[in-house]
Amino acid sequence: MPELPEVEVTRQGLLDHLPGRTVTAIAVSGLRLRIPMPLGLLHEHILQRRIQTLDRRAKYLLMRMDSGAVLVIHLGMTGKLGLHEDGAARHRHDHLILTLDSGQQVRLNDSRRFGAVMVWPAKAAQEAECAFSAREGIEPLGSEFTARHLHRLADRRIVAVKSLLMNGRLIAGIGNIYANEILFASRIHPATEARRLTVADWRRVVVESQRILQLAIATGGSTIADFLGATGHPGYFQLHFQVYGRERLPCPRCGQTIVKTVLAGRATYSCPVCQPAP
DNA sequence: CAATATACCTGGATGC
DNA sequence: TGCATCCAGGTATATT
Questions:
Q1: In a domain, A87, yes or no
Q2: Residue A152 needs a FRET pair 20 to 30 A away by CA distance; which of A53, A127, A229, A230 works?
Q3: pTM as predicted
Q4: Does A59 participate in catalysis according to the annotation?
């Protein structure tokens, strides 16, 4: 599920429960995620350590320990990080379980195993984080995300604007759903060459990106009480989409039929009237 | 170099 | 009901 808002909602939900807690046990499924589970590093740097805080960069969660070590978790396509009572039954696809001294467990459940778990030991954490962050794009909710900056990023790039929005090396956290929604709200056709967008176009992209992502976070956050529920899922699925998944349904703005196309291999939804083809 | 294709997995929806 | 096929919110790597 997770794009930036879902990861951020997960972070905010866990933030009430993790800081100050010590990891008293670690269990794994033994299955390989996108990269192998760093068992040795987990035991060496996370076990019996106290959690200081939980941050987010792009779609990654950074669990910072008092020692300076960092546990990095990526949720892939199907990953969910939930809080469960210690004795609760284990679920299929629980790949990492951190038991806390509060009697609760943080569990990473990921059926497709596209997620990833990494550990940065305290001694190497600063350097690792710098290298990591340099590979990730700018934060859509950060100060660098401006029309001017995007206009410059897109300059000379022969790529569809939707692909640029989804390029995590350039812009962090925007996946297929939110790229579709942002471009609809900005009234820009997804296949438009990025270099053709004017600064005014980019200004709409910036405004709509921030509005939609913040609304999604607030909506997910509003149901954060569910976070400790039986499933452990935070409040995804609350936002109702304007175009994503709405093939053949009427455009919420003009009533015209939403069309589905494939762009760079990803399902793409647009309104032929509100987002005229380039 | 930059853009696209492919591979990594499971599970749900759909169609025969 | 069973079985095959397609599709899915991500990203690293290979290929053009």
A1: yes
A2: A127
A3: 0.94
A4: yes
